[in-house]
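Minutes, project check-in
Item: structure for the 86-residue chain
Input as provided by the requester:
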Amino acid sequence: MPLSDRDRAILDFETLWHGHSGAKEEALRAELSLTPARYYQLLGRILDSADAVAHDPVLVHRLQRLQAAQERERRNRARILPASAR
């Protein structure tokens, strides 16, 4: 499925915010009218798209690597925690 205008806007927004500090949550609401939770849900879906890779391969591959690292970290923490703490 081709990227929608919103999908491209989300990728473009992420490009601008990479490496910058600031009130990203406020900017998400102001520029994209999205809550942070919804933004990250949509971004996760977009990153699985071949069209996203075609649109900005460097950004998408970087974000996919970050996602994979975060998932590994979550799995490692789950293995370390005792069952009663989960």
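Outcome recorded: The mean pLDDT is 88.
No further action items on this chain.
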